[in-house]
């Protein structure tokens, strides 16, 4: 279906810089997306090999700088054989299989962490030594991944990952460890950070169910009862014989740099460096994943609110590093791209967060077959603005399925730097 801003041209007229639309099924072409700006002769050759007679392009989105190019001779076009298309389609299938496998690994590791956390809560009274061993083994495993990679990415998982009692603690642990790495902590500090972050809310198991989750309608006595989870957490940490720095983190994870926190209202200079990290990440995840999902903020809104409303609560260098690491649009953000399409941010490289990885709404491609697009490789495509999920058209909302609960894990941040849309067969 055409619109007033596009027109059909012959394949012989294709030039680098043209913004084209491939009006064929996604399995009939090898490109990650069906409409894009041509950036190489290889892309032109591949399009000409697809067996279509004409192609639709948008002059207003095109930037053809040289219209005097010599048209590729027919013998050159025919040299781009069907084999190249078959190769590209195989490569696309391999990319789909690879990204599915990567996500499955992340979700399997997240679920293993959730099961470990459950074991710890079950064993902490009867076998505190075993509980400590389980926690430290889990964090050592996390560190083996985070510290072995030059770069790590924050990956959004599906909503089937995790469950309420462990989701928050694992989210806080994953993001805190990435932030700790970004702030240059040594391995011992990272271990204490991970252990304390995972255990920071363990004391909630001692609370009655009615006050286990913070509620804006709590009475004063209920609020005080809820705040007792900090003391309970520290008592359980002593029972487990956790390291002093991990226990101090647990004692201070609700303290604020401006002395407005609890339970001791200490000034920021008395907060440990590890406490400053977890206090900030804890606030971020509570804004994104509150007990009442109706009050949830988008990741973009949560970052904005922390910076504009709660800035004095947090250590300034820690906050600056956190915002730089998460990017303007953290994983889980719903965005509109510069070409007006809608997308869901699924991964942010914590070392290079400006152009994240996204899934783009494209009705011509089945949702389960959509490639994750790395915006670092898309010179002509960037994020225009952040949206609330309910601002999406219904078709885009159904396709992107914005998460009501945000589950995070980490994955490898470095990848091959080739542009998958322009790679040619050997």
Care to describe what's here?
- By secondary structure, the chain is α+β, with helices and mostly antiparallel strands.
- Among the domains are: 7-80, no CATH class; 96-293 and 307-312, Hypothetical protein af1432, CATH 1.10.3210.10.
- It has helices spanning 41-48, 74-79, 82-123, 128-146, 164-182, 187-199, 220-227, 229-240, 244-252, 273-288, 299-308, 316-326, 394-400; strands spanning 7-10, 19-21, 35-37, 54-57, 152-156, 334-337, 342-349, 357-360, 373-374, 383-387, 408-412.
- The strands form two sheets. Strands 5, 6, 7, 8, 9, 10 and 11 form a seven-stranded antiparallel β-sheet that branches. The chain has a four-stranded antiparallel β-sheet with strand order 1-4-2-3, with no helix packed on it.
- α3 (82-123) packs across α5 and α4 packs across α6 (187-199).
- The protein is elongated and about 75 Å long.
- The chain starts with 6 loop residues before the first strand and ends in a 14-residue tail after the last strand.
- The relative contact order is 0.13.
- Mean pLDDT is 87; it is low at 67-80 and 416-426.
